[in-house]
Amino acid sequence: MMDPRALSSPAARPIRAAAARDPGPLGPPPALSAAGITKRFGPLLALDDVSLRLAPGSFHALLGENGAGKSTLVKCIMGYHPADAGEVRVGDAALSIRSPREAQSLGIGMVYQHFTLVMNMTVAENLVLARPSLPLVIDWRKEREAIRAFMARMPFRIDPERTVRELATGEKQKLEILKQLYLGSRILLLDEPTSVLTPAEADEVLGMLRRMADEQRISVLMISHKFREVMAFADEVTVLRRGRVAGRGKARDLTPAAMAEMMVGAQPAHVSAARGDAPAGEPVLRIVGLAATAGRGRRALDGVTLTVRRGEIVGIAGVSGNGQEELVEVLAGQRAAREGAVLVHGEPYGAGREQTRAHRVRCLPEEPLRNACVPAMSVAENLGFRVFDRPPFTALRFGVSRAALRRSAERLVAEYAVKTPSVDAPIGRLSGGNVQRAVLARELGSGEDIELLIAANPCFGLDFAAVAEIRSRILLARNRGTAVLLVSADLDEIFAMADRVLVMSEGRIVHESPIASADVAAIGRAMAGHR
User: Fold this and answer.
1) Are residues 24 and 38 both part of a single domain?
2) Closest CA to 173 of 140, 144, 207
3) CA–CA dist 2, 448 (Å, integer)
């Protein structure tokens, strides 16, 4: 593989010249190819011999469930991650792209799902400061004239003197795209570019990119889960599933049903034999008309209504970013609800410490080391968060009995097979699977019968042994009568564990089915916003 800095052929020079602020050389952009890309993160095989070609002037959609490998593939192309095998080609040149800056020098630009703008700076300042190098003294008068001339050549314009904070969400997304065009990018990689946009804003932004691709000014590779947008704007589609190419084709030749089957498979995963067959009991958790907002006032939850009964696992499926995270945050007391009600055992529930104790509610959040632990504190201290202020863990009424905490921690570590040098070791030094086991031990191992467990992506990124252990523990809790709300981006996990499946899309519950009669294709379509 060649180093981009060693390129000297005439065909390569226009690509390197694209880093200038000129709109780029005449003619179509170069082809971009990823051939046989394989990438491992420890034991996890994130990409397995994945190939993709972005033709000059085309609009290509990259589909797949969360964790399918889409972002990893794009990051390998951009130089964030070195691929373990395979090569990236721009035009006819095989390259070793070692950083996003090198990718930018080759005319490849990335538009991220979340804005990378400096909110208190002007549009002009954001554009100029995005350049890879700047003079010691910036001639702002000259720069503003150049930016006005640049804007005049673009299909959409934003006043260079406006502060980014004043822009609407759709304008900020346009500015992110303008920034890449200003830097000379002719190959645009878009990571969920419409996730924060209204449907009208999304159509406007994607329509402008589609026209620029038709004019052979740019090529676009867009990560998306929204079938409507793929069908409306894409030429070609590649679908990843579990790090492999599950299918590809021309968008005009594919149906939403066919793409959904590629994404999630034709058959559900094997249902775990550990699940008991006792009927569900009375309602434990009821959510009625729940609404909440996310960043920039975006409506993240829109009238969510659901019920979880005793001895039942209700699985919430859906592509991340459709309100699942905000739902868990409301239930955990980390985000305020704007409308609606959360009831546990028929009583209003606000997730305060006394309420969680009274109603025996426990939570296993996503990324537990960040959301449920203090990394620098010991395993014993983290395991004691629920009980340190209750007998027998209190010493002389106001202190904490460290001996009692250690004894309890040693019991839980043994019972839940947490691998740690000792209970006095900082929990931040444990592997991800062992952190998850420790948090599960804290939440379920108190000896009390837990009434409600909220689990968010409990097995994400873990090895097979940890996955099997954690799923088994959750199923055992369910069989003892615990009501479980399982929020997971892994549809196979939902089918392996849940009794009922609900699908969230754009902050709403859009599909519901008993797991025994669930239609995988219908669930896939609902997850992708195609109903």
Assistant:
1) yes
2) 207
3) 61
